[in-house]
Amino acid sequence: MKSTVDKDGVTVIVGDKILVKEIDSRITEYLEADEVESLNEFIGNVFEVNSINTDGSMVVTKSTVIEENGEIYGTDLGIFPIGAVKVS
């Protein structure tokens, strides 16, 4: 099974939960301000790791419900080890 580590060197596998501490600037540097603002909503929240990329980043999903019509959509984001803390 693929694994990576969090910012403290603790092993993380798919299914573990991480607290997002920061988003790598390589992801946000070319985005519009409103897109960066949306991604910054990940920071400070806990997510389950869906998969682990070959670069060691952990893919998490934030679900959003549109109140007006009840639709749910998800945003996936790769969190690099420096921006994640494994939670129990």
Strand content: 35-45%
Give the uncertain stretches in residue-range form. none
Helix-and-strand structural type = mainly beta
According to DSSP, the number of beta strands is 8
Q: Write out the strand line-up for the largest beta sheet, numbering strands in chain order.
A: 4-3-8
In round numbers, the mean pLDDT is 94
Summed up, the helix count is: 2
Radius of gyration: 13 Å
| N-to-C SSE string, H for helix and E for strand | EEEHHEEEEE
Helix content: 10-25%
Largest sheet: 3 strands, antiparallel
**Span from first to last CA?**
19 Å
Features of the shown structure:
88 residues; three-stranded antiparallel β-sheet; 40% strand
Structural account:
The strands form 3 sheets. This protein has a 3-stranded antiparallel β-sheet with strand order 4-3-8, with no helix packed on it. Strands 5-6-7 form a 3-stranded antiparallel β-sheet, with no helix packed on it. It has helices spanning 25-28, 33-40; strands at residues 3-5, 11-13, 17-20, 46-48, 51-52, 58-65, 72-79, 84-87. It contains 2 helices and 8 strands. By secondary structure, it is mainly beta.
Task: Give the gist of this structure.
With 88 residues, the protein is mostly beta strands.
Set down the secondary structure blueprint.
Layout: E1 3-5, E2 11-13, E3 17-20, H1 25-28, H2 33-40, E4 46-48, E5 51-52, E6 58-65, E7 72-79, E8 84-87
Antiparallel strand pairs: 1-2, 3-4, 3-8, 5-6, 6-7
